[in-house]
Amino acid sequence: MQHRIRLAALILAPALIAATFVPEPKAYVRDEVHSQINFLASSRLVDAQGFWSSWTANIMFDPDALDKSSVNINIDAKSVNTRVEMRDNDLRSKNFFYVDSFPTITFTSKIINKLAGQTADSIMSNTKLNITGDLTIRGITKSITVPSTLVFFDRKANRGRVKGKFIVMRKDYNVGFDPPMNPVANEVELTFDISFVPKR
Length: 200
Fold this sequence. Notes:
By secondary structure, the chain is mainly beta. Helix content is 14%, strand content 49%. The chain starts with a helix and ends with a strand. The chain is elongated, with a radius of gyration of 22 Å. The protein has one domain: Lipid/polyisoprenoid-binding, YceI-like (Lipocalin). It has an 8-stranded antiparallel β-barrel.
């Protein structure tokens, strides 16, 4: 009798393990050569386009369970670059990002939702997502939802790309200075385009 019980346990064990095994999201980082974060700020005199040159992206990604995936972005605020040194120094000052006191801009996702009604091909081409999370600028944190697109994820190559665009109300984050002769719009457009590869 005990022999039969042991035999049954050995037969059932693999099935039980398979039934309880839940794959975990895998860790990815940005491909620095193929990733960027840009912004566009309109003012009376010019629409200033810029980017941050120093930042990291840590992504936990499960192509079969996007809701279990996550992204964490950390930007070195002083790496802001609009290709005009005087303007960049002003952006680093207390007038705007105040990088001496608030050196980092961060985004931490809380929820990633795939929009309903989509059919996916083998590489998940142009899958529409909403990424909701906490954006922190100048020490102020607010929840935002970023309309995003998973451009592709190639399981064989084990790499993918995600991009998105959203509007930030800069004065909500105390980035509120307006030069008297060149007032700046409150709405600032941010775009991100991240190719991601396995973390080594």
